[in-house]
Specification:
2 domains
Length: 376
């Protein structure tokens, strides 16, 4: 393990990139998918089980952790890694997105955001400086600059004003973060679907200088075609010798399309949230275990999968667990979904290394187009 944070680009295939991020807590193989541990846990999963799926890094939510149990309390208890028993790297978001999407009675100023908690209505203030302080108290390996992210669609003036405010906050975040050997700070590109605003944002971030760069402001209502349209040019605006992180993405085909366009890191609640609601992702497309057609099906969820749900249990049993409201349903389906997402990442890494990404991508889409296995 490295004593510092460093990114190495190992291979490219078209715009797709194979790399590694070395941190004092371990190596992150890229392209990487980060399971979301909102409240210091990946829902329905033990940390050891998350590691078994192949995850090198988790995402923690600054907003949720600052409200409960509190960043100062986590720090007193030894930091987020010890608190949640996860020894590998952790990336924390800045809290900005949750403030805009979850908090009530928000007031946005140049200084930051004041808001009332969605939990108890208590008043809080989050600024670039406070966000950096919280992420330092949590002890995350990768921190994100504080930004503001408007939902799409939005008019150009709103996008422009938001982007420029975020760039001023990015500079303040960089100053507040300071010099923390072994830890990294990522800047976040904004600009909506406007190419010139994306370039202006990238230039502002490059002038400040960050350890990595995120493409923000996507997967917020614009649709896949529009998102891919931005990803056709936005990653190339960011330094090639730093990791590129697409925030909040996504479905399996979103992930593959993003890597194809030069993205190195992604996160999304989809595999865990879907696992709790009876939906599984497989190499032949999504499967809804709520459907009655599974109740007498003795076959595995995915015959080619090696996760515990597929190795040891039938579709009929998984259907029964969900219908009965048993907790084991969420545990097994979440494990399967995370296992499958990590298999996608491993497949892409192998394909990029062999300069066969286009062939791998074609097979991926072809198999998904076949649909679920035929009913018995």
């Amino acid at each position: 393990m490295s004593a510092r944070f460093a990114f190495e680009l190992l291979a490219t295939d078209g715009a797709a990139r194979l790399g590694r991020i070395d941190t004092p807590r371990g190596t992150i193989r890229t392209p990487a998918f980060m399971p979301v541990g909102t409240a210091a846990t990946v829902k329905a999963m033990r940390p050891e089980s998350v590691a078994e799926t192949g995850a090198d890094v988790l995402l923690g939510n600054t907003y949720h952790l600052m409200l409960r149990p509190g960043a100062e309390r986590v720090a007193r208890l030894g930091g987020l890694h010890r608190f949640m028993n996860w020894e590998r790297p952790i990336l924390t978001d800045s809290g900005g997105f949750q403030v805009m999407s979850l908090a009530e009675l928000r007031q946005l100023t140049e200084r930051g955001v004041t808001f009332r908690s969605h939990l108890d209505g208590a008043r809080h203030e989050l600024t670039p400086e406070r966000s950096m302080e919280i992420q330092r108290l949590l002890g995350s390996d990768i921190a994100m600059a504080f930004d503001e992210c408007p939902a799409l669609p939005a008019d150009r003036r709103r996008i422009e004003e938001s982007m420029r405010l975020s760039m001023r906050w990015a500079a303040r975040s960089r100053e507040a973060f300071g010099d923390r050997p072994g830890h990294a700070l990522f800047g976040i590109q904004q600009g909506g679907l406007e190419r010139d605003l994306r370039e202006e944002s990238a230039e502002a971030l490059r002038s400040v200088g960050f350890d990595g760069y995120a493409v923000g402001g996507l997967a917020v209502g614009e649709g896949q075609a529009a998102m891919f349209g931005v990803l056709d040019y936005a990653p190339a605006m960011l330094p090639a010798d730093r990791p590129r992180y697409l925030m909040g993405v996504g479905k399996p085909d979103d992930i593959v399309g993003a890597v194809k366009r030069g993205i190195d890191m992604m996160d999304c609640v989809l595999p865990t949230r879907s696992g709790r609601t009876g939906q599984a992702f497989t190499r032949r497309g999504p499967v809804n275990l709520k459907n009655a057609r599974h109740r007498d099906d003795p076959r595995p969820l995915d015959e080619a999968c090696g996760c515990p749900a597929c190795r040891s249990y039938s579709r009929a049993y998984l259907h029964h667990l969900f219908r009965a409201g048993e907790i084991l349903s969420a545990m097994l389906l979440t494990w399967h979904n995370l296992h499958y997402f990590q298999e996608i990442m491993a497949g892409m890494r192998e394909a990029i290394a062999a300069a066969r990404f286009a062939e791998w991508e074609a097979a991926f889409h072809r198999q998904r187009a076949e649909g679920d296995i035929d009913p018995i």
